[in-house]
Amino acid sequence: MRLPFGLNTMLSIQGPRSIYVYSLLIGLLSGFGAYGFNWALTWTESFTFGNLIGYDPGTPAGDLHFHSVGRVGELSPLWILFLPAIGGLLVGIITSFFCPEAQGGGTDSLIHAFHFNEGKIRTKVPFYKAIATILTLGSGGSGGKEGPTAQIGAGFGSSLANFLGAGARARRTLMLAGTAGGLGAIFRAPLGGAITAVEMVYQEDIESDSLVPCILSSVTAYLTYTSIAGSGSIFSVQEYSLNDYRHIPLYIILGLLCYVVGYFFVKVYHFVQDIFAKLPLPNFLKPAFGGLIVGCIALLFPEVLGSGFGLIQRMINGEVLTSTSFGFSGPFFLLAVAIFKVFSTSLTVGSGSSGGLLGPSFAIGGMLGAFVGTMASVLFPELNIIVFPFLLVGMGSFFAGVARAPIAGMIMVCDMIGSYALLPALMIVAMIAVVLSHKISIYRNQIKNRFLSPSHHWDMNQDIMDRIRILDHFTEFRKYAMVSEHLSLTQLQSNAPGIQASDFILVGSNEEYKGIVSLRKNRILPEYEEELKNLITCSEIVQDVPPVCQSDTLGKALRILLEYDVDKLAIVEDNRCLGYLRYIDLFNAYQNEVKNKNKQRKVV
């Protein structure tokens, strides 16, 4: 669905200010979407955990508005064993027959859409992702709820960009703004949501172009969400500050432990993904099989079920976590929960069920931090160790390491507890985990930096671009998307899918260049096609975009593409159109030039 003909100029994105306004709207929608999702999920978990499984996983303070597990029945081994498999089967049916994009963590697919699909997300994805995640987590699967909320917001952003006929750059920005809105709302982290959205797409960079829209969206979503659910952070924490420097060596040990277990987590998760991809089972049965193994783990450790946020709140409150199955507690029980959470999360998400990886990463890191804090209090009672700061620092640092997102890991935890008192300790531990984890990432679609991402073709070195002439790299040009000025708009819309183009070069009867027609900016809605059929010709809606000639530079061509928001540019000689160049053509020529220069340096 797009803007009705005639409204495109009024409401289309004209510049950064338009992006900012629409980011506020996306944040508003993301806040409502996150609230609706969290309401449905908590009520589902209340029924399944309380009435079927008979296990209370606890509730974070920020989610008490929705519901908490009320009356808990007797622990049921049968439901523990088979409920995750039943949930996995239902999710498998959804992802196999209705929406394949709803499987897995969600964040990786957003990163892929940003880099390789111009920020495009099908409108139905957020709806099916929400249902699939509710089924996964509600049945005891080990995952997080940030994946669907991020995709709900990202879907709003991408769909709005399509509706407005925006270009790829604007669509990517609005998609990230929606992602930030979903994260900022569900975690009650207005700054953390924005930073996570711009940092998660790269291993060693941030998407700085989208930072302001992400902040606007995340803050708006947070305010929308808390205006309904009540203010406050997601975790209720007593005040604490790092004032005993004798604890610093313990935090260093925690950083090393976060790296070791994080490396293990990434390897196990990717191994499970690859195994299930090759498993000779119908795709709709794979999540059920993974859920069955999770159920077997949960028979021994029910603590691995769900997101784990409830357990974190219980430990923050000072409760000594005791094994439900064996009745023992202590530091090694906490370490065992962390290790088995690695396996249960990998099996849940890696087999194709729907759930995020950010939430479980926080839970695993929290258990590692609690392990270090508890062990230190046993070995060094004179240090007067308080466990919950280690737990919280472990949360952010573990995620920072496995996701290659150091700033996001630190800021997110500070937002989630409503205090920056732990920031110095977070900085120490997160930096250790990130520096040691420089070759691993839980997200396979992350790109190392902006330069290597297809989303930043316009960031190519302009000095080099201005030295390369078009004729140095091109002797022939594409002509598939060249159309006659007499062609009607309805005919062009009918032909576009076969040509697989959205922008077209308009030429006259003698192939003289007339301009460019963009179906992203001009389109007749289906309900008006019959009335307007053949009434509007391409020459009436042509956009006056300057052409270039073969002696011009790639730099000039790139500047025109960016200024006029088109995806191809006409090559003209003696007023005759020879064809056109696309973004990817300029990018490839630039890359070839850089490679040739590097080879010459090596020879010298």
TrEMBL record:
Protein keywords: Chloride, Chloride channel, Ion channel, Ion transport, Membrane, Transmembrane, Transmembrane helix, Transport
Protein's UniProt keywords contain Repeat: no
InterPro entries referenced in this protein's UniProt entry, alphabetically: CBS_dom, CBS_dom_sf, Cl-channel_core, ClC, ClC-type_chloride_channel
Chief location category: membrane
Domain CBS: 542-590
Membrane-spanning segments: 20-41, 78-99, 174-198, 210-236, 248-269, 289-312, 324-342, 362-380, 387-411, 417-436
Signal peptide: none
Location relative to the cell: Membrane
Pfam families: CBS (PF00571), Voltage_CLC (PF00654)
Keyword field contains Chloroplast: no
Source species, domain of life: Bacteria
Topology class, membrane: Multi-pass membrane protein
Descriptive protein name: Chloride channel protein
UniProt organism field: Leptospira yanagawae
